[in-house]
Specification:
Layout lengths: L1 E11 L3 H13 L5 E14 L2 E15 L1
Antiparallel strand pairs: 1-3, 2-3
């Protein structure tokens, strides 16, 4: 078995959980056999003293056929 790992960045205005779900949803459109997603880093964008959006940098592991 061979496993490949790619890195992706996703964001959301709702929160970190939603940003992670956005990453999985979008990757699932083109990548099959996803095994796991590891959150490498998290960040927020701030505008006018308030959190404007949440971001995650993820490593996605999937089996290669």
């Amino acid at each position: 078995m061979v496993v490949k790992v790619i890195e992706v960045i996703a964001s959301s205005e709702k929160g970190f959980d939603d940003a992670l779900q956005n990453a999985v949803t979008e990757i699932s459109k083109t990548v099959r056999n996803i095994d796991s997603v590891w959150i490498k880093d998290q960040k927020v964008h701030v505008k006018d003293g308030k959190i404007a959006s949440y971001g995650v940098i993820c490593k996605v592991s999937f089996r290669v056929d």
